[in-house]
Amino acid sequence: MARKLVQKSISINASAERIWRVITEAQYNVVWLAALGRRKIAQTDWQEGSKAVFVDDAQTGLITRIRVARPFEKIRMQNVGMITNGVEDYESDDAKESREFFEQYLLTPEDGSVRMRVEVTVEDDFCNEVSACWANALEVIKELAESQAPDGMC
């Protein structure tokens, strides 16, 4: 399976702590995950070594393992399987091939703001689509992080 690396970044006028909350807290990530396509939900505690499941309303999606979780700096996830109609699959050919893919979020301070960079490996055929979706999702993350303390966010 041919693959490509999608890289997107955006400058956000908010603290790394605030951006981290937008990425990891369910009340916010359900909003920005929706910008990636069909409504998606993240089921994880965002801790290093934890399983992270990303599913849509049809209970279809990906199973990942959080390889790196450094609060306010970096999250790196490695695909380990797939979910189809709510059933976890680790052994099919597609599930095994998906293990070659990763997703990473990096937060780097720069000139009074924070640069958020996303790196995602995707199948070659989906590169343009995923790139456009991540451009939208980063704008949503920026808007949420820069907004005036939604729902008690500091």
UniProtKB/TrEMBL annotation:
Pfam families: AHSA1 (PF08327). InterPro entries: ASHA1/2-like_C, START-like_dom_sf. Gene3D superfamilies: 3.30.530.20. Residues 13-145 form the Activator of Hsp90 ATPase homologue 1/2-like C-terminal domain. Belongs to the AHA1 family. This is Activator of Hsp90 ATPase homologue 1/2-like C-terminal domain-containing protein.
